[in-house]
Write a structure and sequence with these properties.
mainly beta; Maltoporin, Chain A; 22-stranded antiparallel beta barrel; globular; 4% helix; 802 residues; Immunoglobulin-like; six-stranded mixed β-sheet
Length: 802
């Protein structure tokens, strides 16, 4: 069936092919050779002032006009803060035409201050990606990056709070194009410590180029931070107070100073979050035909304090060369007290044993990174060389105290109390170097080549002690020292070309991986080295500006994160824990995407992702010790197909909505926990965002989300939905605003699940402190004129740091 589908698609594209149309391209820069985004470009006939077409320059200052008839034309360019300019008259015949760069001079005339108000749609459809715009929205006010990201089209959280895209795990997460190099628990902690007031937008990217790292099973989530584009000294301040079951608050300060060729920037954010959670777990364990029933109720009190900061300098050392140096850091302290009571018996109605468990977690998580980026424009034809050096360090230290006590029905202890403690310091050092070279081959074609090298060392030293006879004794069965080293050398080539209405981009990336996982305690070592090629291709056909079709293919890899490879047990409580697997191999996937964009507003994406040797969450159970654990293994084939629809609707002048629907079909075939599993399931995700402009200074937002019930691996997930409301009041000075937002208004977004597979029979219900009211005050100060743009770089290995 697949073969006939692709043949029909290719036949359709060939039938739609028509003669090449003339296209006009060009770019706009400032007098300092800086690209000018958002400049308005008009196409007129030479002897008239009638505007035939209009365009807006992109982030790189580029513009284009498609389907232009042969004739004599002129280009006019206008932009606030700059003097207007126009091109010389030019003739076009039957071939595409590229104009020389147009440079605008700064308008130094004194003008009265004019407030220009522009409004981006909440969700934008762009080639290969959907963009969730949250800048100045109540959605961002007082929330963290994790709260915002999971509201993006096609994004969700699984039962372990790991990010998923189109229902699939293994998502690459970047910030301003730079890899976060984290996954799992540490990625969640990092996103929770990132202030939402600093976020401009979230990009959901489903296409892949050879320039991009091959890591990531289904796509990339890119968090775009706000850019200060103002001249002189300026900044912004945000203060948020929130309340749910408990109080939470945060504040942030951003500063920027630009003079001529030098820009200095910095930001600081502090958050103090308190949360409350309840878990209710029913579990049945069978041993030699005898069933034991466990009814567990847990109350978790969570406290988290975070300091995050960023500062740097950008120096234009010449007209063609720009050097950027920046440093990022965060210091996070988290406390988690877990008080649990478990009734144990021969049924849920009759029990004879009570287990009281108390555990106190304290984790310190520090992250530091420094980046040196140099961009050199070789000539005015577009040749460019970019070089990056990146250093990152992660330090994590988790201390846990355990106290377990068994009682009978009269609350008399019948077994010695168990007092234990563990320490788990983790240190991860990452060094990355890469360069990228761009070389235009013609007006419509370009070649990109580059290379990258990364070196990672992860040191995990777990100690576990029992308190016996008034002294702490090392528990050798649970103590382990694990060191993981990994080197990846990569090279790529990308080729872009446009022929009439057809656009093609093909690329090839090669990665050589050398890894060494060594358990010093167990004296076990797992070494691997492998070379893999990752081809990709994208074919685009522009029927006209209102109808664009694209077909893409990419091969990808998902490497296990460093914690998943560590062969020791992470205890959650006495009866449940997570176990590492040093023999876990990477998984490889082949993904096909078909995208259609209508009227530059509506978007349809069909994707198929085929994963071999999929990394799957499996389970284990000790019927004697009554313990259950989770482990990741390469267990089978996972074939996933998804259809994403993005439908913006303008209801009235004051009411705009965006509806995003994602239908996902899962097909898994493999072994889980020693049992064969063939499971098909369907998930529907729906997101409806509403933006109301009530007055010039008052706006409101409503966001509705729905997740249908579905089967994920061995878990049966229940349906859930939530609603978020918010309002923004902008004051007359245009510098200050007040935002009020309520998340999960009806407290209906809790995720509940159960499993009844093989010897595993359990259900989990939870209550989280999700309904939170937040009030945020924002103020902008300093000079708020003249545009300026900072840039960032990209990397990879932090994505898997644990």
């Amino acid at each position: 069936m697949k073969r006939y589908f692709y043949l029909l698609l290719l036949n359709f594209l060939m039938v739609c092919f028509v003669h090449a149309q003339v296209r006009i391209t060009g770019s706009v820069q400032s007098e300092h050779n800086e690209p000018l985004p958002l400049a308005t470009v008009y196409l007129t006939k030479t002897n008239t002032t009638v505007v035939l077409k209009a365009a807006v320059t992109d982030e790189n200052g580029h513009y284009q006009f498609a389907e232009v008839k042969p004739g004599n034309y002129r280009i006019d360019v206008k932009m606030i803060g700059y003097l207007s300019d126009k091109s010389n008259a030019f003739d076009i015949a039957q071939s595409d035409y590229s104009l020389p760069i147009i440079q605008l001079k700064t308008d130094t005339r004194k003008l009265q201050e004019v407030a220009v108000e522009g409004k981006r749609p909440m969700v934008e459809s762009k080639p290969g990606k959907l963009v969730l715009n949250v800048e100045n929205s109540p959605m961002a006010a007082g929330n963290n990056a994790l709260d915002i990201v999971q509201r993006a089209p096609g994004v969700s959280l699984d039962n372990n709070n790991n990010l998923q895209l189109m229902g699939q795990s293994g998502v690459a997460v970047t910030i301003d194009g730079r890899q976060t190099y984290m996954s799992g628990e540490q990625l969640v902690n990092f996103l929770k410590s990132t202030d939402g007031n600093q976020i401009k937008s979230v990009e959901v990217i489903t296409t892949r180029a050879a320039k991009d790292d091959a890591e990531g099973a289904v796509g990339t989530i890119n968090i775009v931070l706000k850019k200060n584009r103002m001249e002189g000294f300026n900044g912004s301040f945000n203060l948020t107070a929130g309340s749910g079951e408990k109080f939470r608050g945060n504040s942030s300060l951003s500063l920027n100073y630009k003079k001529e060729n030098t820009t200095v920037f910095g930001s600081y954010a502090y958050s103090d979050e308190k949360a409350y959670r309840q878990l209710h777990i029913d579990r049945i364990i069978q041993n030699v035909g005898v069933k034991s029933y466990f009814n567990q109720k847990s109350v978790l009190d969570e406290k988290e304090r975070n300091h995050s900061y960023r500062f740097g300098i950008e120096q234009r050392t010449s007209l063609r060369n720009t050097l950027t140096l920046q440093f990022n850091g965060s210091n996070n302290t988290e406390y988690n007290d877990n008080n649990s009571l478990t009734n144990i018996g021969h049924s849920f109605a009759q029990y004879d044993t009570i287990l009281v468990s108390n555990s106190a977690f304290k984790e310190l998580f520090d992250r530091y990174s420094a980046n040196l980026n140099n961009e050199f424009k070789i000539d005015s034809n577009g040749r460019k060389l970019t070089f990056d050096l990146d250093w990152s360090k992660f330090k994590s230290s988790k201390r846990v105290n355990y106290h377990n006590q068994y009682f009978d029905l009269n609350w008399s202890p019948f077994a010695p109390e168990e007092i234990q403690r563990s320490g788990m310091p983790i240190g991860i050092d990452i060094y990355v170097a890469k360069f990228d070279y761009e070389h235009p081959l013609s007006k419509v074609s370009k070649l990109e080549i580059g290379a990258k090298y990364s070196n990672v060392t992860s040191d995990n030293d777990l100690t576990f002690e029992d308190f016996l006879n008034n002294s702490w004794i090392d528990n050798v069965k649970r103590t382990n020292h694990f060191v993981y080293k990994e080197q990846i050398a990569a090279g790529y080539v990308d080729y872009n070309n446009t022929v009439g209405k057809w656009g093609v981009k093909i690329g090839l990336r090669g990665e050589f991986t050398l890894s060494d996982g060594h358990s010093l305690t167990l004296n076990k070592q797992v070494k691997r080295n492998y070379f893999q090629l990752f081809p990709n291709a994208n074919l685009t056909y522009t029927v006209n500006e209102n109808h664009i079709l694209s077909l893409g293919y990419a091969r990808k890899i998902t490497r296990p994160n460093y914690r998943q490879l560590n062969p020791f047990d992470y205890f959650i409580d006495k009866l449940t824990f997570e176990r590492g697997n040093p023999y876990l191999n990477p998984q490889f996937s082949n993904e096909f995407t078909l995208n259609y964009t209508l009227m530059q507003r509506y978007n349809v994406t069909l994707g198929i992702n085929d994963i071999k040797d999929a990394i799957v969450e499996s389970m284990g159970q000790d019927s004697v010790q009554k313990q259950t654990w989770v482990i990741r293994e390469n267990l089978g084939r996972n074939l996933t197909a998804y259809l994403n629809l993005n439908i913006p609707v303008t209801v009235s002048k004051i009411w705009n909505m965006n509806n995003n629907l994602t239908g996902i079909h899962f097909n898994f075939d493999g072994m889980v926990a020693g049992y064969p599993l063939k499971r098909k399931s369907f998930l529907l995700q729906a997101n409806s965002m509403h933006n109301l402009k009530l007055s010039k200074s008052l706006s409101a937002n409503v966001n509705l989300r729905y997740f249908s019930p579905f089967k994920y691996n061995v878990y049966d997930m229940e349906a859930r939905w939530d609603m978020e409301v918010g309002a923004t009041k902008t004051f007359k000075d245009q510098r200050s605003s007040l935002k009020l937002a309520v998340t999960d208004l009806f407290n209906t977004g809790n995720q509940n699940l159960r499993t009844n597979f093989g010897s595993f029979d359990s259900s989990i219900r939870q209550y989280q402190d999700r309904r939170v009211v937040r009030l945020t005050y924002s103020y902008k100060f300093g000079n708020l004129k003249n545009n300026y743009r900072k840039k960032d770089t990209s990397n990879e290995e932090k994505e898997r740091a644990q």
